[in-house]
Every structure is written in structure tokens, then in C-alpha cells.
Amino acid sequence: MILHDSGASHALGIRLAALVQPGDVITLEGSLGAGKTSIARGLLAALGLAGEAPSPSFAIVQPYAPPEVRLPVLHIDLYRIDDPDEMEELGLDDAASDSLLIVEWPERAPGYWPEALALTLQIMPDGARALTARVPAAWRARWHQI
């Protein structure tokens, strides 16, 4: 899939929001500026978040809960994680079953979310983004609605 600009990335997030359920994990991989946060912000806005979602780069985990959003969400940015062993300290396992997890920089914790909808963004020479998806079984029927 080609995302021609940040508006297209934001719109993809909006389409994803219509399909997410508690317990889902969406990982967003790509270089700095590839559009990971644009997708996350579109998703969060469509789930009801008023205003622009801050990047969780410094907090690492930014939680959102109803009524602020339709379902509990953890927006996670692993850019500052240096060792996958640090993941245990974040306490994400407890929230994973009843929250949506949106994970930027998942390559910092390889293998941590094997059943995630894994989206990878690559910046093309013309500035567009090429999006590839690894679609797990739980997402196959839903992904066709994107």
C-alpha cells in the first residue's frame, strides 16, 4: 500500500480505529519521520481522543482510557529502550488483554508481539510511504476492510 502523504497515514489510522478490539496489538516500524506517529494519531483521534496525541517518546507508555477514548489504549514508543529485558519493567503484559496496544519501534523488543498486526513504513524517493503489513490470523478478515 502506498501512503502519499501524512494525511494518508492519518486516514489509515482512522480506518484501523473502526476495526480494533481490546487485546489487539498494532506495531509500527520504520525510520524516523516515516509516519508511525501519524497513523497512531489518526487511530487515537478516531477512537475519540480530543486534541493531538503527544508522542510517547519520553514517557515510553502513554495510556488512554474511556471516556477519553472508546476503549483502553496504550501508545508505546520503544525508541529509548536499549535492552529487550527492560520490557518487563513496563508492565505491559497485565494490560494487553483488555487494551489496544499501539507500539512504535517494535524492533527494540524483537519477538515480543508475535501476533501483532505488524505495519512497516518505508520512505520512498518521492516522499511517499510504502506500507507493508504482516497480518496475523486474528486480523485477516478485518484487514480486507482497510
Automatic annotation (TrEMBL):
Gene Ontology BP, a term = tRNA threonylcarbamoyladenosine modification
GO terms for MF: ATP binding; metal ion binding; transferase activity
Q: Where in the cell is it found?
A: Cytoplasm
The record's annotation in SUPFAM superfamilies points to: P-loop containing nucleoside triphosphate hydrolases
Top-rank lineage group of the source organism: Bacteria
Q: Does the keyword Metal-binding apply?
A: yes
The protein's matches in Pfam families, at most eight in alphabetical order, are given as: TsaE
Q: Which GO terms describe its cellular component?
A: cytoplasm
Q: Which residues lie in coiled coils?
A: none
Q: Which InterPro entries match?
A: P-loop_NTPase, T6A_TsaE
Which keywords does UniProt give here? ATP-binding, Cytoplasm, Magnesium, Metal-binding, Nucleotide-binding, Transferase, tRNA processing
Family indicated by similarity = Belongs to the TsaE family.
What name does UniProt use for this protein? Answer: tRNA threonylcarbamoyladenosine biosynthesis protein TsaE
Task: Name its species.
Answer: Sphingomonas alpina
Query: Which gene is annotated as encoding this protein in its UniProt record?
Result: tsaE
